[in-house]
Predict the structure.
Amino acid sequence: MKLKPISCAVALFSSAFLAFGLYHVHSFSGVTEGGVLGMTLLLEHWLHISPAVSGFVMNAVCYAAGWRLLGRPFIGYSAVAAAGFSLAYKIFEQFPPLWPGLVELPLAASVLGAVFVGVGAGLCVRVGGATGGDDALAMCVSHVTRWNIQWVYLLSDFIVLALSVSYIPLSRIGWSVVTVVLSGQIIGVIQKVRLPFEEK
């Protein structure tokens, strides 16, 4: 398995960018995401299954599917991205949040969070990797169905958010919908445009 150094660098940057957004925006603003993260919270609420367990199982299944459908380079770039995400998040946790006032500005938090998720996940997917199970699942479904990846993200997020209405207030879900719609569209745009690091 031969990985391109520039693609590994992009995977590291994108995962750190995503970690920055999740720590400084999502974790303090009350705006959440769909996908695997949302499903782990749902299972914890209704079935009392720890996210540590459910998240590990779901991510492992998604990565295994990605390896089977997308090949060994996918696993290589995903390993780089996952390690980069964990390391970056650990570093960011050592500092106070940059924008604690976002908790009072849900629209700003939704838009800003979407930018970090869309750009971070979008760049990683573009080089062939996944920062988490959500990305791996979206890549697999897009590969099999030939649907544009932004619609796959949107569908999976909407399913989880719709289920989350069973325990999360609609007002909070509404801001999360804004985030997942915008982030999914940003990911779709990044898959279509030519990027500076790509070979001509």
Summary: The chain is about 75% helix and 0% strand.
